[in-house]
Design goal:
2 strands, globular
């Protein structure tokens, strides 16, 4: 997957503007709630109201930055609840709006706050700080600034990840943060391999668990193994081909073991990772042949048609859908192309490597994914979308469905739903009278 490494050598290092000030009129709850409500309006660049008054964008931006500065200060507060609320508020802002210039000037302050929260905070605070670190790198892109952040945070992330006494949720967050930040920031191939090895040391424990029923790990450890596996798979997509071949030799014959895991999410993660491994194997070797293909396809077919009554219906439905695609990938070298629409653009997900990358960033950005696909240079480079489209206000208004038309459509849809439900209710009533 191509990644452009932008080197912003000409940008001065941001000065630390986050000295802790006593903000009596700006409580932690107000900070988080106000920032969230303020940022929610920026989730879509085309959210222009035709009938509403014109908004002073400069004043709005200044207001937002003022509140964000307050949140940055609150990450140094003595109260753990206040720090966590501030971290969540910053996460919400960074996921819903591009704030490159603002973040660039304060990246060192933010990095110090994140490092302190991960080192000294408890589980929820560590998770929030790790999530903010991911968003910080997403905002800054694949440049020297993100690399500095990664070099600062990587040692503590690895330490917590490998610490069996740390909470599983915190280790999960550190695994995801490690994988995403390494994917975005590192240019050092040795560091890439070291990070992958660190992740391998965690999820490969599931190999032994499934082989030996006497050493069954807890469900919590399985969740950790899933996070490390997905982070490792993400990094595998940017490895050189010679390293990919080594990883295939190490893991391809072991991955089918994970398909027998009791946890449906582990089975799905293993299945999608297996499909990616087959995809990469065929890219590296046109004559690739897997010796145990018949046994593997039997297992995949069983999972694609699983009807075990002891499993939840939702889990079975989800599993069958995924493994139908995995089976097609393994047997027919095929991938069901998905289309992602954002604004006037479309993106086609046409391979497992692209799907893995998209799913990872979607998990981080949440509802802000579409906005970042439109405006974030990093994501547009990763997914080969080209430079962001420059659309003027008139074009955005012409693309927007008028409010009256939306109202008519929603009214018609509501009436249709009501009629359909009433018919179902009538049928149930008739059956009740018969019996």
């Amino acid at each position: 997957m191509p990644k452009s490494k932008r080197r912003g050598g000409g940008n001065p290092r941001g000065t630390s503007g986050a000295q802790h000030r006593n903000m009596q009129s700006f409580s932690d709850e107000d900070a988080s709630i106000e920032t969230m409500s303020h940022c929610s309006g920026f989730s879509d660049p085309s959210s222009i109201t035709e009938d509403g008054p014109e908004v002073d964008e400069e004043a709005t931006q200044e207001d937002l930055e003022y509140k964000l500065k307050g949140l940055i200060d609150l990450t140094l507060d003595k109260s753990a609840k206040t720090r966590q609320s501030a971290l969540e508020g910053l996460k919400n802002a960074l996921s819903s709006k591009i704030l490159y210039e603002f973040i660039l000037e304060r990246r060192m302050t933010l990095t110090d706050s994140i490092e302190r929260c991960i080192k000294k905070g408890k589980t929820d605070e560590q998770r929030a700080a790790a999530g903010l670190a991911c968003l910080l790198c997403v905002q800054l892109g694949s440049g020297i600034e993100s690399e500095e952040i990664y070099k600062t945070l990587a040692p503590i992330l690895k330490k917590i990840l490998c610490d069996a006494s740390a909470s599983v949720q915190a280790r999960q967050a550190c695994a995801t943060c490690l994988g995403v930040c390494c994917f975005i920031a590192t240019d050092d191939i040795t560091e890439l391999y070291t990070t992958m090895e660190c992740l391998e040391n965690i999820f490969t424990k599931s190999y032994q668990k499934e082989r030996n029923s006497d050493s069954i790990s807890s469900t919590q450890n399985t969740v950790l193994h899933i996070s490390t596996l997905l982070a490792w798979t993400l990094l595998l997509t940017i490895c050189p081909m010679n390293e990919v071949k080594k990883k295939l030799e190490m893991h391809l014959h072991k991955f089918p073991i994970l398909l027998s895991c009791d946890d449906v999410n582990m089975r799905i993660a293993a299945g999608e990772s297996l499909a990616l491994l087959f995809e990469l194997a065929r890219e590296t070797d046109g004559d690739f042949f897997y010796e145990d293909m018949e046994l593997l396809t039997q297992k995949l077919k069983a999972l694609a048609t699983d009807g075990n009554k002891h499993r939840a219906k939702v889990d079975k439905r989800k599993q069958r859908s995924v493994f139908r695609d995995v089976l097609r990938a393994v047997e027919e070298h095929d991938f069901p192309t998905e289309t992602v629409k954002f604004g006037p653009e479309r993106m086609y997900i046409d391979c497992w490597a692209k799907k893995q990358t998209y799913d990872t960033f979607k998990e981080i950005l949440g509802s802000g994914m579409q906005y970042h696909l439109q405006s974030n240079e990093l994501l547009r480079n990763v997914f080969e979308l080209g430079p962001p489209l420059m659309l003027d206000e008139a074009t955005l208004k012409s693309m927007k469905v008028p409010r009256f038309e939306r109202h008519l459509y929603n009214s018609a849809a509501f009436k249709a739903r009501t009629k359909a439900r009433n018919k179902c209710r009538d049928k149930r009533a008739d059956v009740g009278e018969v019996f």
